[in-house]
Each structure stands twice: as structure tokens, then as C-alpha cells.
Design brief:
Helix content: 25-40%
Strand order of the largest sheet: 7-8-9-10-6-2-1-11
Radius of gyration: 20 Å
Strand content: 15-25%
Number of helices: 12
Number of strands: 14
């Protein structure tokens, strides 16, 4: 098992680093531990104009970036630690979030803490969220990454994110702040992030010695190029905010799905599907399949039935997804 650190707190560079390792480092398992300073990180299919308080983010000089995994929008600062675990994957193999979260749970038992996996992709402590997680597939490799709220500024977090009321399952929940917590709140001594890193390395490595590796100068050049040409661009970060003739949004157990369509002469001319669903692959492939399709439920369902939707929308079925293209549920 190999260990890498990005050694930077620049979110554009860090996400480029992670993507590079996923796509180009194929020799065994990799663990990355990294931090972003003052950053909003969106899920792959999210609309920044709906998810972020952009005026507040600009005022506070918060960086905004889109990642390559699905799920929701999160806030990172230096009180938050991110992990990325990359390993081989075979079709049909178990990729449940809990499988990859066990080393995290084990690591924090050193502090007497008992975390549990709940919901789609969350790690909870005392019923409150301390970690959100997401996954991506690239060929025969899988990435699972997540946040760990050590001593993050939760008030700051609340001020820069827009959270839909539909996400508050209980009427007693009044704010983002009441649903999440810092791990530090449950540990008497001050938590040192370097110490937490060491515990995570030991746990992920099953207490064996990690091989701490360095990328080559040429690889660092490629990472910086990817950061510049993709992650720092407005085209990447502010896409998926369409002004279309038709919009419909529905929520499923595996997340919300929002369909935007332009219909021309009875056929789908443009299609964008947004949401916080936990996709393993970019939904662009699904959108492209639907372009030119007759705008009727039968035709759309037939196309969707030919696609392995679990790779894109979790447990959402072809019939459920087809329903998003018609009758509004708002």
C-alpha cells in the first residue's frame, strides 16, 4: 500500500492530484490525506447557483471547485481533513461505503469514539454527521474519498451553503449546524491533525508499514496542467446551470434528481441532469443517449432501460427516472 500527500492546500491542485493518481497510478492501493483551505467543493452533477450562496462566498473569498464524484456540496477549511483511497475494482465486487469506512471507524476508536455509517454515505458520531463520502470508477480502479470534520468552522460552513428544506427530514431540525458536528467536540484533549493522519495510515494499512512515495517532476507538471486546464476553469466549475424550457426535480433514497430539457419538434434537443445522487460515473453519457429521443415516456424508458443506471443513479430505476422527465413533483 502506498501513501501520498499533495503538500498543498490549493483545492484546484489537490483535486487534479487525486484525479491523476486515480487514472495513472495503477500499481496497488493508494491512500492520500490532504486539506483544502477555505473552499466549497461541489458534487459532479450539481448546479452552483442553487447550492452556494455566491455573494457570501465572494465576500469571504471562498474558492469554488467541482469534483469528479457525485453527492452533495461541502465546505473545506484547515479544520477538515480529506482522505482518498484508491484500489482495484472488479465488476460485481462490493463497493458499499461502509466497507471503505471501516478503517476510519477503527482509527478513531483510539480516542474512544464509536462512529457509525448511516444513510447513503455519511459517517455519524452521536447521531451527527462528521464525514460525507463519495465514489468514482475509472476503468478497473475505484476511488472513495471523504471529509473528516476535526475542528472545522461550522458557522462559516452554514453561511456559504444553500441547503434545500427537503433535506431536513425532521421538522425539529432548524439548521445545518444542528445536523453536523466536529470530532473535536467529543475528545477532551486537542486533536492534532498530524496525529490523526498517522492513525488513519496505520488503520488503512492494517498496521503494516506504508510505502511513502513521491511522484516524478514530470508527473507534477501533468497535475499542474490538469489543475489549470480543468479545475481552475469556469467552464468546469460553473457548468450544469442551464436555462431550459422544462425542469423537474424529485427526491429518491439515493439523492435528488433534477432534469432540465429543451424540446424541439417533439424530440429532446438538450438535456442536463443535476442532483446530489451518488454516481460512480459522469451522467454525461446518459444525457448524450437521450439527445434526439422522442419526448414520450415509452421512448425515454426504453433508452434508460438499456443503460446500467446503478453506475449513475444508485438504486433509482428506469421507470422512476423516466418519471422525472414529465409530471412535476414540486
Amino acid at each position: 500500500m502506498k501513501y501520498l500527500e499533495t503538500k498543498k492546500t490549493d483545492p484546484y491542485y489537490n483535486l487534479a492530484f487525486e484525479e491523476y493518481v486515480l487514472k495513472h497510478c495503477q500499481d496497488g492501493d493508494y491512500l492520500l490525506l490532504w486539506q483544502n483551505d477555505n473552499t466549497i467543493v461541489m458534487g459532479l452533477h450539481q448546479n452552483p447557483y442553487e447550492e452556494i450562496n455566491l455573494a457570501r462566498a465572494e465576500e469571504l473569498k471562498v474558492k469554488i471547485v467541482r469534483r469528479i464524484t457525485g453527492g452533495g456540496t461541502v465546505y473545506h477549511d484547515l479544520g477538515n481533513l480529506n482522505y482518498s483511497y484508491i484500489t482495484d475494482w472488479k465488476e460485481g465486487e462490493d463497493i458499499a461505503f461502509g466497507r471503505f469506512l471501516q478503517p476510519v471507524i477503527e482509527a478513531f476508536r483510539k480516542y474512544g469514539l464509536h462512529m457509525e455509517v448511516k444513510g447513503r454515505n455519511d459517517l455519524l458520531l452521536d447521531g451527527k454527521k462528521v464525514s460525507g463520502n463519495a465514489q468514482a470508477l475509472e476503468g478497473n480502479r475505484i476511488l472513495q474519498h471523504g471529509t473528516l470534520l476535526i475542528h472545522s468552522n461550522l458557522e462559516f460552513l452554514s453561511s456559504v451553503l444553500n441547503v434545500s428544506a427537503e433535506k431536513f427530514i425532521s421538522k425539529s431540525v432548524k439548521s445545518v449546524r444542528s445536523r453536523i458536528t466536529n470530532i473535536q467536540d467529543y475528545v477532551e484533549e486537542p486533536l492534532d491533525i498530524e496525529e490523526v493522519k498517522q492513525l488513519l495510515k496505520e488503520s488503512f494499512g492494517r498496521h503494516e508499514t506504508f510505502e511513502e512515495v513521491e511522484l516524478t517532476p514530470e508527473e507534477f507538471v501533468q497535475i499542474e496542467k490538469l489543475a489549470e486546464e480543468k479545475y481552475r476553469t469556469k467552464a468546469w466549475n460553473f457548468s450544469r446551470a442551464p436555462k431550459f424550457a422544462y425542469k423537474n426535480k424529485r427526491r429518491f433514497p439515493d439523492g435528488s434528481v433534477e432534469v432540465h430539457l429543451q424540446i424541439t419538434e417533439g424530440r429532446i434537443a438538450r438535456c442536463v441532469i443535476n442532483g446530489d445522487f451518488l454516481s460512480l460515473k459522469s451522467v454525461c453519457a446518459v444525457e448524450e443517449k437521450l439527445i434526439g429521443c422522442l419526448y414520450d415516456q415509452k421512448s425515454i424508458k426504453e433508452i434508460l432501460s438499456e443503460i446500467p443506471l446503478s453506475m449513475y443513479f444508485g438504486s433509482v430505476t428506469a421507470e422512476e427516472l423516466a418519471g422525472c422527465f414529465f409530471e412535476s413533483k414540486d
